[in-house]
From TrEMBL:
<feature type="domain" description="Lysidine-tRNA(Ile) synthetase C-terminal">
    <location>
        <begin position="371"/>
        <end position="437"/>
    </location>
</feature>
<keyword id="KW-0819">tRNA processing</keyword>
<dbReference type="InterPro" id="IPR014729">
    <property type="entry name" value="Rossmann-like_a/b/a_fold"/>
</dbReference>
<keyword id="KW-0963">Cytoplasm</keyword>
<dbReference type="InterPro" id="IPR012094">
    <property type="entry name" value="tRNA_Ile_lys_synt"/>
</dbReference>
<keyword id="KW-0547">Nucleotide-binding</keyword>
<dbReference type="Pfam" id="PF01171">
    <property type="entry name" value="ATP_bind_3"/>
</dbReference>
<dbReference type="GO" id="GO:0005524">
    <property type="term" value="F:ATP binding"/>
</dbReference>
<dbReference type="InterPro" id="IPR012796">
    <property type="entry name" value="Lysidine-tRNA-synth_C"/>
</dbReference>
<comment type="similarity">
    <text>Belongs to the tRNA(Ile)-lysidine synthase family.</text>
</comment>
<dbReference type="GO" id="GO:0032267">
    <property type="term" value="F:tRNA(Ile)-lysidine synthase activity"/>
</dbReference>
<dbReference type="GO" id="GO:0006400">
    <property type="term" value="P:tRNA modification"/>
</dbReference>
<comment type="function">
    <text>Ligates lysine onto the cytidine present at position 34 of the AUA codon-specific tRNA(Ile) that contains the anticodon CAU, in an ATP-dependent manner. Cytidine is converted to lysidine, thus changing the amino acid specificity of the tRNA from methionine to isoleucine.</text>
</comment>
<dbReference type="InterPro" id="IPR012795">
    <property type="entry name" value="tRNA_Ile_lys_synt_N"/>
</dbReference>
<keyword id="KW-0436">Ligase</keyword>
<keyword id="KW-0067">ATP-binding</keyword>
<dbReference type="GO" id="GO:0005737">
    <property type="term" value="C:cytoplasm"/>
</dbReference>
Length: 448
C-alpha cells in the first residue's frame, strides 16, 4: 500500500514534468489526515529544498493554534520551509466560501514568493464523489458536475491533485501504518454545511442502494471529462475562424447550430475575462446577435459591460471606456490651408486652392466665418442637392459606421452652426447665390 501511494504521487509529478524543472512545489497542509499523508509521501520523494508547506490558521476553532504549532515542529524536523497565513477577519455570512477564497489567495501568494510552479492539495476519491453530487444539486451544469480535476492552471503555475484516485480509507491506513499524527476538525462532524450533509447522509444512502455508487460516479467523471475535452477542442478550432482580435464575426456565428453558438459565446466572454455567462443571459445574447432586423445595436449584459453589434462584427466593452453622447471629443476653429489628422490616421483640411484629394467645393460668405469643428448632435442635418435635408444619424447608418464610432464623429459647422461637412463621410450642398453686396469665396474640402 505504501509503495502504491508513493508511486501514484510520483507518476502524477512525472506527468506534469515536475522533475524536469528546478522549481519547488507548494503543498497545502491543514494538519488533517489527508494532507499530513501527502506531506509524508512528498517528504520521501523530494529533497527539502524542493518542498514548501503552506498553512492557513483560520482562527475558527480553539485548537487552531495547537495545529499551527504542531505543523511548525513537523516542518522544522523535515527541514522544509513553512508559510502560515493568519485569517482573523471573518465575514458574518458565507464563511465557508470566504475561507476557501482566503486559502487560495494565500497559496497563490506563496507560489509567487517561492517561484514555485505547482500547488498540491490532498483532495481524494471521496472528495471527488462528494463534489460531483454537490455541483449536481446546486447547478445542474455539466462543466461544474465534472467536479474536481487532477490539474488546472493556477497562479503562476498549476494546481495538482495527485490523490484524486485514492480512497479516504487508503489514506487513513497509510497514516496509521506510518504512525503519523493528525488532527480531526470537529466541525466536520456537524451538518451545517452541504458537504458534511452529503458526506454523512446523502452519499451513504446511495451506497446502501448500490455499494459501487462511488465507482460509478468516478466513471461518469471520466466520460464527462472526455466529452468536455472534445467539446473544448472543437470550440477552440471554431474560435480561430470566428473571433479575431477579440471581435466576433456575426455571419460566421449565425451559421453555427444553437448548441455550438452557446459554447462559442461562453468561451468568447470568458476569454476576455469579463464574467461567467449564465444560461438565460446566453440565450438573450444569442437572440440579439442573430436578429438580422437590427444589424447595428447595443445591449447591456451586465452593470458595466456593453455588447456592441456593428453589422458584421460584435465586441464587448466596459461602459466606463465608452464615450458618452455629451462627451466633447473636439471643439475648435478651423484654420484654412492646414491639414488636420484624425485618430484613425487620415487627414483632412479646408483650402483656398485645389489639392490632390479635393472631395467638394463650397461657396462660403464672410458672414459664415469662422468655421468650427465639433462632435455631431442628434439634431444635426445636412443639406442635399434637392434642397431637402438628411439627418446626420441617417448618413452614419447608411454608410454603416459602427455604433461605437458614431458618437465620436466630427462635423465642420459655420458661424450659424449649420453643418457643412460630416468629416470623412459627406458634405452639404451649397450653391453660389447671387445676393447683392454679398461676397463669396470658394473653399476646397480635402481629405487624404
Amino acid at each position: 500500500m505504501a509503495d502504491q501511494l508513493h508511486l501514484t504521487v510520483k507518476r502524477c509529478l512525472e506527468r506534469y514534468r515536475f522533475f524536469s524543472l528546478k522549481q519547488p512545489l507548494v503543498v497545502a497542509v491543514s494538519t488533517g489526515v489527508d494532507s499530513m499523508t501527502l506531506l509524508h509521501v512528498l517528504g520521501s520523494l523530494l529533497s527539502a529544498d524542493q518542498l514548501v508547506v503552506a498553512h492557513v490558521n483560520h482562527h475558527l476553532r480553539a485548537q487552531s493554534q495547537q495545529e499551527e504549532q504542531f505543523l511548525r515542529q513537523q516542518c522544522q524536523q523535515m527541514g522544509v520551509r513553512l508559510y502560515v497565513d493568519q485569517w482573523e477577519n471573518h465575514p458574518q455570512h458565507g464563511i465557508e466560501n470566504a475561507a476557501r477564497q482566503e486559502r487560495y489567495r494565500f497559496f497563490a501568494k506563496v507560489m509567487h514568493e517561492t517561484k514555485a510552479a505547482y500547488l498540491l492539495t490532498a483532495h481524494h476519491e471521496n472528495d471527488l464523489a462528494e463534489t460531483m453530487l454537490m455541483k449536481l444539486l446546486r447547478t445542474g451544469d455539466a462543466t461544474a458536475t465534472v467536479g474536481i480535476r487532477e490539474a488546472r492552471p493556477f497562479a503562476n503555475g498549476q494546481l495538482l491533485r495527485p490523490l484524486l484516485r485514492v480512497t479516504k480509507k487508503s489514506l487513513v491506513e497509510y497514516a496509521r501504518v506510518h504512525q503519523l499524527k493528525w488532527y480531526e476538525d470537529a466541525t466536520n462532524q456537524e451538518d451545517m454545511t452541504l458537504r458534511n450533509r452529503v458526506r454523512h447522509h446523502y452519499l451513504p444512502e446511495w451506497e446502501r442502494e448500490n455499494p459501487r455508487v462511488v465507482d460509478h460516479l468516478l466513471k461518469f467523471h471520466d466520460q464527462l471529462t472526455e466529452l468536455l475535452t472534445m467539446k473544448d477542442d472543437i470550440v477552440s478550432q471554431l474560435m480561430t475562424r470566428i473571433v479575431h482580435n477579440g471581435q466576433l464575426d456575426i455571419t460566421s456565428y449565425q451559421q453555427q447550430v444553437p448548441v455550438i453558438r452557446h459554447c462559442l459565446l461562453y468561451r468568447w466572454v470568458n476569454d476576455q475575462g469579463m464574467f461567467a455567462l449564465q444560461e438565460q443571459r446566453s440565450h438573450q445574447i444569442d437572440q440579439f446577435l442573430c436578429n438580422q432586423q437590427s444589424p447595428s445595436s447595443t445591449m447591456m449584459i451586465s452593470n458595466d459591460l456593453q455588447l456592441i453589434k456593428n453589422y458584421q462584427q460584435a465586441e464587448l466593452k466596459k461602459v466606463q471606456n465608452l464615450p458618452t453622447k455629451n462627451q466633447k471629443v473636439s471643439d475648435f476653429m478651423v484654420k484654412f490651408d492646414h491639414w488636420y489628422t484624425r485618430p484613425a490616421g487620415d487627414q483632412w483640411g479646408i483650402f483656398s486652392h485645389p489639392q490632390e484629394r479635393t472631395i467638394a467645393e463650397l461657396w462660403l460668405t464672410g458672414g459664415q466665418l469662422p468655421l468650427r469643428v465639433r462632435t455631431w448632435r442628434p439634431t444635426d442635418r445636412i443639406r442635399l442637392k434637392s434642397g431637402h435635408h438628411q439627418a446626420i444619424r441617417r448618413v452614419l447608418i447608411n454608410q454603416k459606421v459602427p455604433l461605437n464610432q458614431r458618437q465620436q464623429q466630427l462635423v465642420v459647422v459655420d458661424r450659424f452652426d449649420q453643418v457643412l461637412w460630416l468629416i470623412g463621410h459627406k458634405t452639404t450642398w451649397l450653391d453660389r447665390q447671387q445676393v447683392r453686396n454679398q461676397r463669396y469665396e470658394k473653399r476646397y474640402f480635402c481629405q487624404k
